[in-house]
């Protein structure tokens, strides 16, 4: 039977048995798009600035206009999938993401581009939570699911590096606009194939907590704005007011979740010490790693004067390392358990980021960037899959969409706030540079200062896992379960 003849919707039994490779490709393609678009625009920022006349501060919003709606609405996206159907919500999210990618690629002004990026983030927030839930529903527990999870985790780890490479190639060969327009054919293919091939998991009817979602999104956005504003204008003026407003909004969100009959973020998900430590460690890790996508291209282009293509290709060693190491991690996980792999991976990442903190005006790619990116590839390929499994292990099926949203909310919120905080560190370094300091040297020093802060984030993640997550004696026995989470947990 051909693919074209499969016209009726997939049943709850799924069609992964007939076309497992295609089903996995559809799910992974969505994950690749939403992960790549969080960081891919970084390499294109100089071209965007010259083409649309962005201010230096405004450039940070090209990244955060996407990440903040994505992070703030992920919980609502996960719950919407539970209520209305994860496949239906997945398709709707991909459709919105695809349409807004087209709008962004055609943007004639900064405001237009930022609005399109925000709509992309909304679409991603409704598509991404369903991706892992659909994977779990379409691949039976055991070797098939483990292989699918390994592929999914590899894409998550590779996303940043692949985004950098693709962005550099497209920006240099065509235009920065194609970094967005390339999503259109991929998104259309996902929208067409998903209803035909991908099974729909059972629904969990209930209400949507829209006020809670708005409070979370507004709180995160105001908090990020406060830090980015501080980088340009210092800590006076509106910055303290914004920090207080963000704290109030986020407190209201937590209060709402504690009282709602059907919360977006069931607080029972945080009752497990291992899971809570994993969530926080993931947030700190993303706060550190997202800054690679901003500051490494900045160093390569502004200090070493690389083209967009060369800056993108500079991430190739990291991408290859993540790919190779992720495949080995899948085989080591049942033997070693998650804890040593997570700890080892985070140590490698901390060494890599710490190395980048030593960048200065005299640093070269070979000595200052290549080795750290290789270490980061080793670290990400080692820790990401076990940490995801640690967080998702044992999630009840009725909390699948919520757990998916919570995990990705911590990831994206950590990334967005990490960028905002470390832009503040970078801006402070530039403001305190001596007047006669060459621009390239001042930029390199500011980037090094930002990576010092990023190293601190990774050390916090390492401390959390070392002190609280999975005592060593339990780790080996839990390894297989962590690799293949029970129920319908998602990421």
From TrEMBL:
<feature type="domain" description="Major facilitator superfamily (MFS) profile">
    <location>
        <begin position="23"/>
        <end position="473"/>
    </location>
</feature>
<feature type="transmembrane region" description="Helical">
    <location>
        <begin position="414"/>
        <end position="434"/>
    </location>
</feature>
<dbReference type="InterPro" id="IPR020846">
    <property type="entry name" value="MFS_dom"/>
</dbReference>
<dbReference type="Pfam" id="PF07690">
    <property type="entry name" value="MFS_1"/>
</dbReference>
<keyword id="KW-0472">Membrane</keyword>
<protein>
    <submittedName>
        <fullName>MFS transporter</fullName>
    </submittedName>
</protein>
<feature type="transmembrane region" description="Helical">
    <location>
        <begin position="306"/>
        <end position="325"/>
    </location>
</feature>
<feature type="transmembrane region" description="Helical">
    <location>
        <begin position="276"/>
        <end position="300"/>
    </location>
</feature>
<keyword id="KW-1133">Transmembrane helix</keyword>
<dbReference type="GO" id="GO:0022857">
    <property type="term" value="F:transmembrane transporter activity"/>
</dbReference>
<feature type="transmembrane region" description="Helical">
    <location>
        <begin position="149"/>
        <end position="170"/>
    </location>
</feature>
<feature type="transmembrane region" description="Helical">
    <location>
        <begin position="234"/>
        <end position="255"/>
    </location>
</feature>
<dbReference type="InterPro" id="IPR011701">
    <property type="entry name" value="MFS"/>
</dbReference>
<feature type="transmembrane region" description="Helical">
    <location>
        <begin position="369"/>
        <end position="393"/>
    </location>
</feature>
<feature type="transmembrane region" description="Helical">
    <location>
        <begin position="58"/>
        <end position="77"/>
    </location>
</feature>
<keyword id="KW-0046">Antibiotic resistance</keyword>
<feature type="transmembrane region" description="Helical">
    <location>
        <begin position="114"/>
        <end position="137"/>
    </location>
</feature>
<feature type="transmembrane region" description="Helical">
    <location>
        <begin position="337"/>
        <end position="357"/>
    </location>
</feature>
<feature type="transmembrane region" description="Helical">
    <location>
        <begin position="89"/>
        <end position="108"/>
    </location>
</feature>
<feature type="transmembrane region" description="Helical">
    <location>
        <begin position="21"/>
        <end position="46"/>
    </location>
</feature>
<feature type="transmembrane region" description="Helical">
    <location>
        <begin position="446"/>
        <end position="470"/>
    </location>
</feature>
<dbReference type="GO" id="GO:0046677">
    <property type="term" value="P:response to antibiotic"/>
</dbReference>
<dbReference type="GO" id="GO:0005886">
    <property type="term" value="C:plasma membrane"/>
</dbReference>
<keyword id="KW-0813">Transport</keyword>
<feature type="transmembrane region" description="Helical">
    <location>
        <begin position="210"/>
        <end position="228"/>
    </location>
</feature>
<feature type="transmembrane region" description="Helical">
    <location>
        <begin position="176"/>
        <end position="198"/>
    </location>
</feature>
<keyword id="KW-0812">Transmembrane</keyword>
<keyword id="KW-1003">Cell membrane</keyword>
<dbReference type="InterPro" id="IPR036259">
    <property type="entry name" value="MFS_trans_sf"/>
</dbReference>
């Amino acid at each position: 039977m051909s693919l074209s003849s499969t016209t009726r919707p997939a049943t709850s039994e799924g069609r992964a048995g007939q076309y497992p490779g295609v089903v996995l490709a559809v799910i992974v393609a969505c994950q690749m798009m939403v992960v790549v678009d969080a960081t891919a625009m970084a390499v294109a920022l100089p071209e965007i600035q010259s083409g649309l006349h962005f201010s230096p501060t405004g450039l940070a919003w090209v990244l955060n206009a996407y990440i903040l709606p994505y992070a703030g609405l992920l919980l609502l996206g996960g719950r919407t999938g539970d209520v209305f159907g994860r496949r239906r919500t997945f398709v709707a999210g991909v459709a919105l993401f695809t349409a807004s990618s087209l709008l962004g690629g055609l943007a004639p002004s900064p405001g237009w581009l930022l609005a399109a990026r925000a709509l992309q983030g909304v679409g991603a927030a409704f598509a991404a939570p369903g991706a892992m839930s659909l994977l779990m529903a379409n691949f039976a527990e055991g070797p098939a699911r483990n292989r699918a999870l390994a592929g999914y985790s590899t894409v998550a780890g590779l996303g940043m590096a692949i985004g950098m490479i693709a962005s550099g190639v497209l920006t240099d060969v065509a235009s920065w606009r194609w970094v967005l327009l390339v999503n259109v054919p991929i998104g259309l293919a996902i929208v067409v194939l998903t209803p035909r091939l991908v099974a729909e998991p059972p629904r969990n009817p209930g209400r949507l907590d829209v006020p809670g979602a708005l409070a979370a999104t507004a709180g995160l956005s105001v908090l990020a704005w406060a830090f980015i504003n501080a980088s340009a204008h210092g800590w006076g003026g509106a910055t303290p007011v914004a920090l207080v407003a963000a704290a109030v909004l986020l407190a209201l969100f937590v209060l709402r979740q504690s009282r709602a009959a059907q919360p977006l973020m069931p607080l029972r998900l945080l009752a497990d010490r291992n899971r809570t430590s994993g969530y926080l460690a993931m947030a700190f890790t993303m706060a550190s790693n997202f800054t690679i996508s901003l500051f490494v291209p900045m160093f390569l282009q502004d200090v070493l004067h690389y083209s967009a293509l060369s800056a993108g290709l500079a991430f190739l060693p990291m991408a290859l390392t993540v790919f190779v190491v992720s495949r080995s991690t899948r085989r080591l996980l049942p033997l070693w358990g998650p804890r040593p792999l997570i700890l080892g991976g985070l140590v490698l990442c901390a060494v890599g980021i710490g190395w980048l903190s030593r960048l200065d005006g005299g640093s070269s790619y070979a000595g200052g960037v290549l080795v750290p990116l290789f270490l980061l590839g080793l670290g990400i390929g080692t820790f990401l899959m076990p940490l995801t499994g640690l967080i998702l292990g044992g999630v009840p099926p009725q909390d699948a969409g919520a757990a998916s949203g919570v995990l990705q909310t911590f990831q994206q919120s950590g990334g967005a706030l990490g960028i905002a905080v470390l832009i503040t560190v970078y801006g402070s370094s530039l403001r305190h540079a001596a007047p006669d300091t060459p621009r390239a040297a001042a930029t390199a020093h500011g980037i090094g200062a930002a990576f010092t802060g990023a190293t601190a984030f990774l050390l916090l993640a390492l401390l959390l896992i070392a002190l609280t997550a999975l005592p060593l004696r339990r780790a080996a026995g839990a390894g297989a379960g962590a690799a293949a989470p029970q129920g319908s947990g998602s990421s």
